[in-house]
Amino acid sequence: MTNPIASNPLKTRGDAQAAVRELVTPLEKHASSGGALVRPGNTGAAFSEVCAAQEGVTRPLWGIVPLLDGNGKFEHLQRYRKGIRHGTNPNHDEYWGDIADFSHHHVEIAPLGFALALQPDEFWDPLSDAEQSQLVEWLNGTNDAELYDCNWLWFRVLANLGLRSVGANHDWVQAERDLERLEQWASDDGWYVDGTPGRVDYYAAWAMHTYGLIYAALTQDAERNAQFRDRAAKFAQDYRYWFADDGSALPYGRSLTYRFAQSSFWGALALADIEALPWSEIRWHWQRNLQWWRERPIFRDDGVLSIGYAYPTLKMSEDYNAPSSPYWALKAFLPLAQSASHPFWQAAPKPPNDLESRIVQETPKLILSRDRGDVFALAAGQNTEYNHKYNKFAYSTAFGFGVGSDVRGLASAGPDNVLALSDGNDYVRTRENVIESNVDDGISYSQWRPWDDVVVESWLVPMIPWHVRIHRLDTKRLVSSSEGGFGINLDGELISQTMEDRKAVVRNSTSTSGLVDLAANRSGDSVQPDPNTDLYHPRTIVPLLSDQHDQGIHWIVTAVFASTNATDERWFEPPRFRRGESITIIAADGEQKVEIDR
């Protein structure tokens, strides 16, 4: 593996400028003769090969444009200009194609609009009149097409903003309609839902907010920009809880191959000159996250960003991830548009010192806790086709999560942090078909239906370093269950496994993961998930508690422990359980007590 930023400390503005050049230069060897197509790999996506090859031209612009706007040097600029000329020329062999209804081209018009608005001297003025006309006509194709009703509407807004900024033909009436529709997905707490019914995830940060802040930085739309700024200030108070002390961000939701796009919100605050938190803290979140990613093996042998998360793997990807898709991460470099005198660059990075140990975030339906610098999240679940990316019971910056590669067999089903149910065949079902979910009173609750005649209610109670899961299983069929804890790396030294009645724990040289049955006598076990399904490690092991359940109502109560300490003594002090008219859970220190009405 070639890591182009391995020796870059990522501490100064100059380091960040160099990082943009280092990250995008490996793409040059994969560019076509006409410059409009970049093919760094042979894997495919749901859209055409030409659209996939276009991404290698447009997505790096998210970093190149602010680099240039901040007077940074970039030696390959002529190739990008050539690519834009040829890609938008219908008479050229490398033409990108017309922008049709729902086509992937809509995603790639956003960085082009951004380039026109922020750096017209480099991306508009050098074009001839004919080349300008063909670019304008191509971008305007979005105004005659249908788009997915979600964050995609921002792409059309940014394209029209870029055209308007250079005085070219555009449709601002359409842009206004899109802005009004986007406003309907804003929540009072600063979050966004991405579409209807929509998901709540990183798209709130690296799409909805980031584009809104770009808009605020580039327009004089006073009333709307005030909303974007105020909403971002609220969101920052929640978003900072998604980052661990080592700079890692909570792996949760889809599109995680965009990696350090996680930092784009912090960078967008700098671009829009919004001190939503002290500049020193904004700078810390931004810088530490980039540094954490620098230390991961996320590159291919030729230095190109791979598809994957903490290492290359296609198993966690979505159908819209093409070989150049990870370069969406370049949005993290928006602060480069600000001069070295800006307070973002002048601030000495300082971690937050006022974070609460636990926080409830109602819109994403998460309860986040911190334990010795790591972030743990209990998720109430969302109705989505990306089941394991939203509907695990728990997520963590320290342990990541596994993505199921198949529904046949426990090892293929992503067994960590789920209650996996089977009715006697090889097919395994986990939390899906979520009927209801909330995080009221600091407890995560969901009702879900794995089959029409099986209903599960799940309560998740944070008791750091533990959390407790209470499941009410109402089944009209015989089912077996296997409940998983956090997966740990199997490539290191596995110190021990303890598998016995009511208990399962696995340890390697750095971590402990375990489960304790508080209410029944389930048997302890472990499973090795399919390789390359975990976001953090190619090979993992997951502790399990398993049982059989006849028809009727069953209560399953589990204490779950995970620590980045192989000898953490807190493992020997699980929460206590008391059964009566209500289920009572008492923390090991006796200070926290929770009752669930039976």
TrEMBL record:
Residues 12-351, 362-567 form the DUF2264 domain. Pfam families: DUF2264, DUF2264_C. InterPro entries: DUF2264_C, DUF2264_N, UCP014753. This is DUF2264 domain-containing protein.
